Amino acid sequence: MTPEQATGRYFKIFVPSMIGYLVGSVGTTWAADNMNLPPAALYGLALVPIVAILSAFWAHWRFINEVDEFLRSIQIKAIIFGIACVMVIASGWGTLELLADAPKLKVFWLLPIFWVSYSAAAIVVTKREGGMF
Amino acid sequence: MKNRLKDLRAERNWSQAALALKLDVSRQTINAIEAGRYDPSLPLAFRIARLFEQSIEEIFDDDAQPAAEA
To answer: For A86-123, what is each residue's pLDDT tens digit?
Structure first.
């Protein structure tokens, strides 16, 4: 399988998953604010973005397995950077919340923080190591 | 790691994309290896060596000094 084919297969799953995630997140928030739903129904609605996230990560897992070793190494480095950002922010801010009464950071934002930091790292590592977009 | 991949490819008038296709890797991978920014795995190094009908040592140079004979 060529990298182009692997990338195409990745985006065919990733883009609908992210749309499902956004629609699910906004829909759940809207339903919680505007509809008098019981907690069980809200938990059920929250499954929509959760399934979408699982789907997106499954697509990423498949993508990493389908590309060649150099592109895989770039992906792994970028993912580790993204995880490191999430861990540092979660742990650092969590400590501030515990010890200094810092404002609460909603854990909802950890996923967007991951994707933004992962994407930035993927661009930087690709340019630095001689890959081309 | 230094290597002669670019020269070997040029001798055959192959583009990076053509070589990538023969080795079943991406063009980015060929570019990174030629630039010395990525060292291929042993299986890929063997595929490169077989394709050019040379030994791995003839294509790749790790700058290591040979061990002195006792």
So the answer is: 999 999 999 999 999 999 999 989 999 999 999 999 99
- CB within 8 A of A68, min separation 6: which ones? A3, B24, B25, B26, B29
Question: For residue B37, what is the nearest residue in chain A, using CA coordinates?
Answer: A129
| 8 A C-beta contact, residue A110 and residue A90 | yes
Q: Which residue of B has its CA nearest to A68?
A: B25
Stated pTM of the model = 0.83
Q: Using a CB-CB distance cutoff of 8 angstroms, which residues of chain A are in contact with residue B38?
A: 70, 73, 129-130
Q: How far is CA B30 from the centre of its chain?
A: 8
DSSP character string of B3-54:
E-HHHHHHHTT--HHHHHHHHTS-HHHHHHHHTTS-PPPHHHHHHHHHHHTS
Q: Strand, helix or coil at B2?
A: strand
How many angstroms separate the CA atoms of A115 and B57, rounded? 41
State both tokens at B44: 């890929």
Angle at B43 between CA A76 and CA B8, to 5 degrees: 105
Q: Does A79 touch chain B (CB under 8 A)?
A: no
| Token reading at A84 | 């490191």
Q: Does B28 contact A67 at a Cβ distance shorter than 8 Å? A: no
Residue B59 Cα distances to A66, B18, B25, B34, angstroms: 27, 18, 18, 11
